[in-house]
């Protein structure tokens, strides 16, 4: 209609029905007068060109889809890496930071923007002196992976570091294991490397031996990386399906892992599990797996992305530690490890038995606050010596969980890390409380024997001196030669003083020789009833008296008068200890002494005893006086209010009856005197 030149592309079909593209050009031919005479057409076959254009369009579309898929995968891996608690950074050949994840920023206390492009050694110069420099150099020069633990003073933190050679530089992931050092609960987690492109990410994952997997929940199809296959002992060309995953897993772990995956999907949470897998050659390997669910727009779980890491070496190391710990638990000594800031890192069964604190209660606690409450001068000196010389040993006084004071023989050994830096102290403590108590009892018995021997000699000498004085005074009084009343009064005073001195000498001799008397079979409960009656009648009413005697109290062989004197002396002492009133209690019970008790008390004998306890709520006896109260002439009373022979007489009478004495006293709370008789 327009009678102009046109050009178009047509799809035509040949005689055999095959399609082909042609390009048609039509041009009008006119007369000299301008009238249209006819059209001239040129038809060109452009099928090859058309197919090439379509192929190019398809290639561009596939490239676009591949880039989009890589970006999605990279984002998923980024989310996983950024969500785990481990830190990661990558260094190039010049030791400059090329990547740092969020956790790395937190642990290094530096931002990503501050570190990217800067030298690791310049930004953290203290690492040159530590293990970092040596180990990182080894990774780059030998192209081997390394792992180590080290203390970094500027951050006051312990780190577990894993470094791997990369295509350009090295990749490092690390953990803050300060808490693990305190609790001795080693936990190593895998680190993922993150790079800008999918290819770089793949290389990084291979370098750190992390396997990547992706599960489609709608089809149950599992896609895994070659490294993931390697973690299960399979070649890169091997098939690996969701079924293969569970077939390779140890049968005892399948149900637990399946439950963990389902729980993660149900609770919209991350998945983490450690499980065993069986390699084709039959060997058992441990796998650490992380996973994160992916969801559709309506929140329906559609898949899960994750990583795997072979942690067999770590598990073997943990097992070796457990075996070594089991050996330490067999030891009877208390063995524990404390950090240089006194935190308890290890606590064996022997320590649980000695101190009463379970391992779960002790780990992480301050050892000094837990076990020591008195002067810390000796502890500080021990710490100084062990740091300077590498070891220390000596005796310490400590307390148990119940507050019981114990004496221990302690041996300290300084523990160093691989760089020679002190990291902790190994302590082996042996309970020598019983030994020290027996030594004290033995020394007291020796001292009492020595005092008895001395007192006996002095008593004989005093008796020889007093006898003529008393005899002369009595003779003069009998002769009535003293007519002056004043002289007779003085003479009477001499006689009374001489008798008092003779009585005192008799008490000393009783202590030194042991008391002899008429022994009969008697019931101590009757003696206690007499004491109760006397005390009720004569003691201040501000003192409350209570008696508790067993109805089936066994009989003893003894002198009633002497035992009456023992119990009366103890009650009078209790009364004097309560000037402002209080409670006096007399208790008597049957008591069977076994060999264990006899070993703790050198004067005790195995067999049936009765135990009489006289208790008061008075002022108590000072600790420095407890070891001397049974010595003759030793007294804690004011001058003129006691001779110091009461308890020494009690000791002598009880020993002569085959028994023994014991006393426990706390200042401000009172005393408990126990008398054991057979």
From TrEMBL:
PAC domain boundaries: 4-58, 271-323, 392-444
Transmembrane stretches, start-end: none
Enzyme class, broadest EC rank: transferase
Domain Histidine kinase: start-end pairs: 457-678
Pfam families: HATPase_c, HisKA, PAS, PAS_3, PAS_4, PAS_9
An MF annotation (GO) of this entry: methyltransferase activity
Catalytic activity, reaction form: ATP + protein L-histidine = ADP + protein N-phospho-L-histidine
UniProtKB keywords: Kinase, Methyltransferase, Phosphoprotein, Transferase, Two-component regulatory system
Protein name (database record): histidine kinase
């Amino acid at each position: 209609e327009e009678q102009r030149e046109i050009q178009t592309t047509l799809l035509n079909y040949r005689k055999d029905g095959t399609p082909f593209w042609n390009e048609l050009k039509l041009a009008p031919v006119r007369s000299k007068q301008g009238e249209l005479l006819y059209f001239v057409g040129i038809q060109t076959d452009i099928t090859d060109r058309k197919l090439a254009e379509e192929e190019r369009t398809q290639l561009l579309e596939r490239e676009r889809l591949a880039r989009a898929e890589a970006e999605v995968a990279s984002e998923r891996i980024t989310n996983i890496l950024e969500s785990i608690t481990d830190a990661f950074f990558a260094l190039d050949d010049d030791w400059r930071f090329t990547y740092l994840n969020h956790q790395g920023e937190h642990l290094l206390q530096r931002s990503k923007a501050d570190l990217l492009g800067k030298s690791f050694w310049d930004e953290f110069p203290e690492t040159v002196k530590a293990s970092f420099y040596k180990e990182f150099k080894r990774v780059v020069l030998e192209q081997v992976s390394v792992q180590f633990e080290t203390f970094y003073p500027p951050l006051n933190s312990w780190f577990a570091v894993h470094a791997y050679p990369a295509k350009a530089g090295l990749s490092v992931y690390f953990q803050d294991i300060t808490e693990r050092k305190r609790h001795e609960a080693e936990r190593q987690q895998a680190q993922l490397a993150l790079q800008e492109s999918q290819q770089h990410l793949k290389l990084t994952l291979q370098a750190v031996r992390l396997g990547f997997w992706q599960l489609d929940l709608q089809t149950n199809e599992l896609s895994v990386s070659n490294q993931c296959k390697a973690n299960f002992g399979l070649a890169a060309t091997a098939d690996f399906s969701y079924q293969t995953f569970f077939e390779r897993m140890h049968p005892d772990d399948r149900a637990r892992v399946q439950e963990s995956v389902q729980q993660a999907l149900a609770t919209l949470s991350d998945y983490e599990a450690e499980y065993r897998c069986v390699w084709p050659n039959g060997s058992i390997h441990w796998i650490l797996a992380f996973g994160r669910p992916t969801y559709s727009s309506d929140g329906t779980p559609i898949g899960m992305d994750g990583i795997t890491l072979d942690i067999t070496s770590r598990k073997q190391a943990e097992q070796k530690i457990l075996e070594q710990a089991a050996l330490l638990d067999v030891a009877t000594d208390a063995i524990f490890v404390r950090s240089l800031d006194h935190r308890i890192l290890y606590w064996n069964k022997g320590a649980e038995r000695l101190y009463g604190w379970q391992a779960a209660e002790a780990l992480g606690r301050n050892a000094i606050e837990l076990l020591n409450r008195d002067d810390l001068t000796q502890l500080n000196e021990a710490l100084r010596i062990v740091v300077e010389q590498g070891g220390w040993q000596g005796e310490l006084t400590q307390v148990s969980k119940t507050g019981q004071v114990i004496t221990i023989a302690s041996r300290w050994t300084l523990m160093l890390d691989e760089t020679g830096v002190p990291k902790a102290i190994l302590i082996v403590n042996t309970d020598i409380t019983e030994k020290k108590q027996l030594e004290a009892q033995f020394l007291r018995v020796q001292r009492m024997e020595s005092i008895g021997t001395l007192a006996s000699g002095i008593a004989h000498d005093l008796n020889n001196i007093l006898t003529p004085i008393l005899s002369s005074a009595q003779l003069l009084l009998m002769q009535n030669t003293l007519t002056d009343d004043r002289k007779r009064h003085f003479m009477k005073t001499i006689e009374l003083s001489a008798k008092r001195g003779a009585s005192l000498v008799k008490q000393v001799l009783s202590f030194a020789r042991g008391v002899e008397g008429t022994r009969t079979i008697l019931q101590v409960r009757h003696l206690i009833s007499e004491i109760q009656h006397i005390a009720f009648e004569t003691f201040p009413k501000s003192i409350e008296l209570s008696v508790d005697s067993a109805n089936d109290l066994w009989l003893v062989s003894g002198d009633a008068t002497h035992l009456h004197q023992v119990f009366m002396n103890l009650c009078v002492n209790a009364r004097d200890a309560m000037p402002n009133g209080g409670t006096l209690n007399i208790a008597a019970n049957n008591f069977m002494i076994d060999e264990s008790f006899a070993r703790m008390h050198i004067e005790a004998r195995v067999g049936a005893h009765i135990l009489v306890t006289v208790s008061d709520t008075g002022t108590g006896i000072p600790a420095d006086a407890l070891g001397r109260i049974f010595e003759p002439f030793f007294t804690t009373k004011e001058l003129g209010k006691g001779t110091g022979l009461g308890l020494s007489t009690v000791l002598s009478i009880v020993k002569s009856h085959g028994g023994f004495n014991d006393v426990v006293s706390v200042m401000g709370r009172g005393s408990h005197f126990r008398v054991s008789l057979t």
